[in-house]
Task: inverse folding
């Protein structure tokens, strides 16, 4: 979704966009869109579907699964910004580092 959205934003030359998503998706969404957009300013607008403030979500396995899954996706998105990737016929592979010899 982020790649398709970024292409659309850039093809329409928007200078800023409002990024609307669930509040627990926002950190990863900002990271992914920021990596893909070149020049457009992001305005986050997090939506709260479930109030988590009272801590009752800690007793719900489904809520924990969703939050742990989202955290894992966020860590992978961080790694994607650090590890160089390149397209290949088989998909995406890790780019080889070049060695500079003195």
Result:
């Amino acid at each position: 979704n982020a790649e398709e959205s970024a292409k659309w934003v850039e093809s329409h030359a928007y200078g800023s966009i409002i990024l609307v998503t669930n509040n627990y998706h926002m950190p990863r969404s900002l990271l992914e869109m920021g990596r893909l957009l070149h020049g457009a300013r992001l305005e986050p607008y997090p939506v709260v579907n479930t109030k988590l403030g009272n801590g009752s979500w800690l007793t719900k396995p489904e809520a924990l699964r969703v939050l742990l899954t989202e955290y894992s996706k966020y860590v992978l998105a961080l790694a994607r910004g650090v590890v160089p990737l390149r397209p290949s016929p088989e998909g995406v592979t890790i780019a080889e580092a070049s060695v500079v010899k003195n």
Q: What stands out?
A: Residues 2-94 form one domain. The mean pLDDT is 80. The radius of gyration is 18 Å.
